[in-house]
Amino acid sequence: MRLFSTTSSILTSLFLIAMTGTFGACSAPDVCDDSIDVGSLSINPQGSPCTYKCECNNQLYEGFCKDDGSCQSLPREGCRVPGKKRACIPLKLDDSGCKDGIQICQPPELGGRSLWGDCKPLVPTKESGKELCQDGLDNDCDGKTDLG
Asked: What's the gap between Cα 7 and its chain centre?
């Protein structure tokens, strides 16, 4: 009779644990498609198979999905001043012809982490006015930084 009572107690305890979710469970899979640039994961995706950019570009790594369906990525660098901008070279050039880009420190998509955001290619803009002529960027994508 004592064996039945012990077995019954164990089974009841296991049932209660299962019902309250005290067992560790896997998190839901990361939702990733063309509408998302930065995935929520933080593992190094270098060389992993991919379909979308956000499979290669996440909280700790900046990357993109190459034409062969594999990730190319680099670790994000730390930064100190939220909102500060800096010049950069995009990992993947787009059709604008610009080889220069710009990054922002601690952008919203990185969830408050003190890291540089994605290097986004500059949109060609005529360099006119003091602000664009002295910002250290090739805003008009002519291969020359600022006008002389």
From this structure: 50
Three-class DSSP labels, 34-68 = CCCCCCCCCCCCCCCECCCHHHCCCCCEEEEECCC
Residue 32 burial (10 A CB sphere; 0-12, 13-18, 19+): buried
Sign of CA dihedral 40, 43, 46, 49: negative
Q: Which two tokens stand for residue 132?
A: 């664009």
The pTM is what? 0.68
| pLDDT averaged per 10 residues in sequence order, the chain, 148 residues | 56 54 50 78 93 92 95 96 94 74 93 93 77 72 70
C-alpha to C-alpha distance for 53 and 38, rounded to whole angstroms? 8
Contact call for residues 100 and 127 (beta carbons, < 8 A): no
- For the chain, the domains span 31-75, 77-140
Q: Which position has the token pair 């420190």?
A: 105
Task: Fill in the amino acid letter for 37.
Answer: D
**Cβ proximity of 69 and 50 under 8 Å:** yes
Helix, strand, coil percent values for the chain (each to nearest 5): 20, 20, 65
